[in-house]
Amino acid sequence: MLYVVWGFPPCRAGGVYRALATANAFARGGWDVTVLTPEREAFERYTGVDPSLEERVDPSVRVERIPFSWPTLEPDVRQWPALRAYAPRLWARARKELDQVPFPEPAYGPWRRELEKAVDRLAAERRIDLCVATANPHVTFTAARRLHDKHGVPYVMDYRDAWSLDVFSGDRLHQPGSRVEKWERSLMTDAREVWFVNEPIRAWHAATYPETASKLRVVANGYDPEFAAEGTARVPSTEAGLTFGYVGTVSGKVPLAELVEGWRAARALDPVLERSRVEIHGYLGHYALPNPAMQRVVESGADVGVSYEGPVPKAAVRSVYERFDALLLVLGTGRYVTSGKVYEYLATGLPIVSVHDPGNAASEVLRGYPLWFPAASLSAADVGRALADAAAAAVAADPVIRSAGVEFAARYRRDRQLDPRVSELKAVAA
User: Fold this and answer.
1) DSSP letters of 223-238?
2) What is the Cα–Cα distance from 248 to 285, expressed in whole angstroms?
3) Contact predicate 5/136, CB 8 Å
4) Which of 20, 238, 260, 426 is a good FRET partner for 245, with 20 to 30 A between their CA atoms?
5) Which of 340, 372, 335 is nearest to 357 (CA)?
6) How far is CA 301 from CA 14, 261, 307, 395, in A?
7) What does the alpha-carbon distance between residue 169 and residue 229 come to, in Å, rounded to a whole number?
8) Domain Glycosyltransferase subfamily 4-like N-terminal spans what residues (predicted)?
9) Structural domain that includes position 313
């Protein structure tokens, strides 16, 4: 199996955990796996790295690294063309247009050339029975298409989220007849399977491309038992106060300011919360350096115990969860939004406070979890009430309820999501 993915260890981008788990699941399922991904230097220069993740790659997996450049994020001004230095906006517009000549995707389109060259070489070196390409970026699908058209290899498209659907607004990003729509329809038509992370996204694509509906599958992100703090046994201290924690990348869609204001409101409702704190662990933004605007929002809550603790190596995530008495699920608004961290949160058995629109797809994942405390809205009063209710549940620390929470989460173990697909595809290939 050839697995084509942009974000693979040591990349620290959010989708890397699904990528790591997918490669390992196929290896565990008896496949001979080769991963095609960028050189390490690309992640070191552009996204930041988590070296501990490379230790988690199954030793049997071969990793083929090919060149990838990202001119718009080039940090070395000595490498900039003169046009960028003297007319940066004009250069950016031109760069965006040029990027989409080989494939309709800004920044990533030029990578198509390297991908196709690499898969031709790999197909000449060894037999490939299946290709799995994961987005985003969606240019990875061109490698699968090349193998299919030139070498007769069946392929699977793993979307993670969506290409033509804005999962936050629900709007269509690329209209019928556009280059993206033509590419997408053609790719999905020829694919063996197409994977999505939740049912709302799958259903949207089934309605949009009804001729492909029978091959669309939900493969939820799930959680990795080797990383998750399953059933953490922390005992809260009302004298020292509670620790509410967030773990993950904070995107621009995350209602960070609403969380801070809700926390202020919550402290007025419960004396224990006056002695408590909020810790945010992860990246502020999608790049190596923290987003300044997000950092200012966090710092605005310093007087009430809100702090930014920086990124966490995946190998240390378990110990971070064990610091918390309750968890904060802070997500951007969107009925198609779940987030990978919700599954990891469930595994802890801790109280979870949802600071997001009630209509998010994450609500369907959490429904039935015995320690779920959703904010009725993003108003400070509603967020504060949910935080106070979660604090009361954390102080009670009922072991029976916590065990029920861990049992509820077990259905979302990553292997239980991936293994059925791995087995079925192996049978087809055989």
Assistant:
1) B-TTTS-TT-----BT
2) 10
3) no
4) 20
5) 335
6) 26, 8, 7, 23
7) 33
8) 14-222
9) 243-412
Burial 3-18 (b: 16+ CB within 10 A, else e): bbbbbbbbbbbbbbbb
Q: What are the tokens at 81? A: 């063309």
Mean pLDDT, 10 residues at a time, the chain of 430 residues: 96 87 96 97 86 92 95 85 91 93 95 97 96 96 97 94 90 95 97 95 96 96 83 80 92 91 95 95 80 92 95 82 94 81 91 92 91 96 97 90 92 92 89
Confidence at residue 253, expressed as pLDDT on a 0 to 100 scale: 84
Tell me if 367 is assigned to some domain.
Answer: yes
Indicate if 316 and 247 belong to the same structural domain: yes
347 neighbors 221 (Cβ within 8 angstroms):
no
Q: What's the count of helices (H) and strands (E) in the chain, helices before strands?
A: 17, 13
Closest CA to 115 of 146, 148, 157: 146
Place of tokens 């699941």: 25
Structure tokens at 359: 């209509």
pLDDT at 288: 66
Mutual orientation of helices 256-267 and 380-396 as an angle, nearest 10°?
60
pLDDT of residue 52: 85
Spatial strand order of the sheet with 277-281 comes to: 306-310, 277-281, 243-247, 326-330, 352-355, 372-374
- Same domain? 180 vs 260: no
Residue 315: what pLDDT?
A: 73
Rounded to 10°, the helix 140-151/111-125 angle is 40
| Backbone torsions φ then ψ of 95, nearest 5 degrees | -60, -40
Q: Can you tell me the distance from the alpha carbon of 156 to that of 425, in angstroms, rounded to the nearest whole number?
A: 9
Q: In the structure encoding, which two tokens stand for residue 59, read together?
A: 């030793």
Token pair of 94 as six digits: 């031109």
Residue 284 included in any domain: yes
- Do 140 and 159 sit in the same domain of this protein? yes
Domain shared by 404 and 292, yes or no:
yes
Residue 5's alpha-carbon distances to 18, 23, 81, 223, 319, in angstroms, are 10, 10, 29, 19, 29
CATH of the domain at 388: 3.40.50.2000
| The dihedral sign for the CA sequence 183, 203, 163, 409 | negative
**Residue 236 forms part of a structural domain:** no
